[in-house]
Amino acid sequence: MSPSRGALVAGAALTAAAAATIAVVVWPESSDSGLAGESGSRTPSRASAAPSPTRSYPLSTPPRTIPAVREHIAARGPGWRPGPAAGVVIAAGSGTLADEGQLLAKELKIHYRGDVPARAGDVELALTPGKGTPESYTLTTRDGRVTISGPDQAGVFYGTRTLKQSVRADGDMPEGEVRDRPDRPQRGLNLDIARKYYTVAWIEDRLREMADLKLNQLGLHFSDDQAFRIQSDTHPEVVSPQHLTKAEVRQILGLAGRLHIQVVPELDSPGHLGAVLRAHPDLQLRNVSGVRSTGSLDISDPGAAKLIDELLGEFTELFGGRYWHLGADEYRALMAKDPAASYPQLQRAAQQKYGPQAGIKDLATGWLNDRAAVVRPHGKQPKAWNDGFFRDGVVHADKDIEVEYWTGKEYGARLPEEYLREGRRVVNLNDEFLYYVLGQPNNFVYPTGKRIYEQWTPLVLRGTQPVPARYSGQILGGRFAVWGDLPLAQTPAQVAQGIRMPLRATAQKLWDPGKPALSWDQFRALAARIDGMG
After folding, report:
1. Average pLDDT over residues 10-28
2. Residue 67: is the preceding peptide bond cis (ω within 30°)?
3. Helices (H), 65-184
């Protein structure tokens, strides 16, 4: 059984120091009575209760959600529960919130009434442009009503997630005001659909799961040595038999858009292209002895750029979001002991294009910049893996390409501080904490939610040590990554179960990187309750 709210208030002074949310006492002029003995199990507020003109209700405690809300202003009152007369309404001038309102009404099993005045028991959604930071929201529970407002649709949507989770956890939304916002703008899940096929339904389930956790990016790595997983009209010969049709991709994108999730497609090059090269063996990189280089394009051949740019042009039109991932990692030519001697055609091409001091890493960097130039006119912000950026070359990667930092082990990889000192913006995919690699090859171990929850923050870009806090503003966020190196090691259902708690822990630390108020066991129990598993 959960302790009563009255018992929680009695113990608030003892447990206040452990709470991470901020609470301020607010006394309404009047308060209804009749719910003082209601059952719950919330974490007490930081502020101690002071004398109140009405003692019918205990001082409210923060809603229990994942991620936890960052600020809660406590008050005395009955809170809000979904009832038979309750409905979701849209404030005047906020008609674009209809989708969010309809979804919330369906989830809470209450009425959706649209653009009408709110009445007792209702939830009102309102846009307040210019009031607050992107994706922030304010949720006010007072006089038997809930109002969720924010400067953009995403913020209001996240407020509805807080309400939904609080009702799932404890049956109600506590009295008072939540003021909430994310710590990082990019928060998500990265999914390798090239090496392991996932159905549309499975991907859509992950999108819904992500949305409830206030995650806003789904990375889709759809091409690799094993398979090319999306229908192509320009080059149907590269597509694997088991793939997503463009109609299915649009279905995924449609749901992602309604859930305020950006899809970040990745067409990796010039490496990881085995599936493409099986249809174009003439473009495969060969060393000086004529041995083929697995998955690698010969970027000295003009046909290589033509092929990839045609695919980029096609798929940047299919994916309408803001970001595009260019890959650029693990190019086999640069992993050779002596790249210039092993691949003389690449060395000649580098010097012809960039001068006598240029080398193969300059040719690879020029390739990355050229591909970024292809996607920018389509409105894309380019991204690339950190081991596709090199030091001390003749050619430098364009400054606007976001660094997706995953490793400090691969050829060309550098300490995170080097990228940050150059002023580059970085996204955290630290393979020490955030890499879920099927089959656990190459010393990878399935990450645990507990370790992420207790030890990782967005500043921990490599290994276990954080970078200096002065670089925090350049670290845009992070994604938990699922890779299918040994695709048969787990079923899709096992993958979903295996990433469940690590994904929740990642969401918590991207929303608020500080030390959580709950212990890991408490966090896990709350997740089970919210998910209907406890």
Report:
1. 36
2. yes
3. 98-108, 153-170
Strand partners, 228: 223
Contact 186, 214 (CB under 8 A): no
pLDDT cut 70: percent of the chain above it: 89
Element (H, E) at 248: helix 246-258
Stronger pLDDT, 33 or 529, i.e. the higher one: 529
Would strands 137-142 and 145-150 be described as parallel, antiparallel, or unpaired?
A: antiparallel
CB proximity list for 475: less than 8 A, separation 6 or greater: 184, 420, 425, 426, 427, 428, 458, 459, 461, 467
Q: Is 194 helix (H, G, I), strand (E, B) or coil?
A: coil
pLDDT value at 47 more than 80: no
Residue 216 has pLDDT above 80, yes or no: yes
Q: Is the dihedral of CA 229, 235, 241, 247 positive or negative?
A: positive
Q: What is the longest distance spanned by two Cα atoms in the chain?
A: 88
Q: What is the pLDDT of residue 42?
A: 54
13 closest CA partner among 39, 48, 41: 48
Q: Is the dihedral of CA 300, 304, 309, 315 positive or negative?
A: negative
Indicate the range of 70-84, 404-418, 433-447 predicted with least confidence. 404-418
Cα separation, 269 vs 367, in Å, equals 9
Rounded-to-10 torsion of CA 151, 157, 158, 163: 120
Crossing angle of helices 360-375 and 344-354, rounded to 10°: 70
Q: How far apart are CA 28 and CA 458, in angstroms?
A: 39
CA distance 429 to 435: 7
pLDDT class of 26 with cuts at 50, 70, 90: very low
For residues 260 and 160, is the Cβ–Cβ distance under 8 A? no
73 strand-pairing partners: 177
Answer yes or no: are the C-beta atoms of 89 and 110 closer than 8 Å. no
Does 326 have pLDDT greater than 50? Answer: yes
pLDDT tens for 222-268 read 999 999 999 999 999 999 999 999 999 999 999 999 999 999 999 99
Cα dist. 104→117, 124, 150, 171, 349 in Å? 17, 11, 16, 15, 58
DSSP 8-state symbol, 404: E
Quick one: average pLDDT of 49-68?
78
DSSP 135: T
DSSP per-residue string spanning 427-485: EE--TTTSEEETT--TT-----HHHHHHH--TT--BTTBPPPGGGGGGEEEEEEEEE-S
Residue 29 to residue 52: CA distance in whole angstroms: 10
Q: How far apart are CA 447 and CA 379, in angstroms?
A: 35
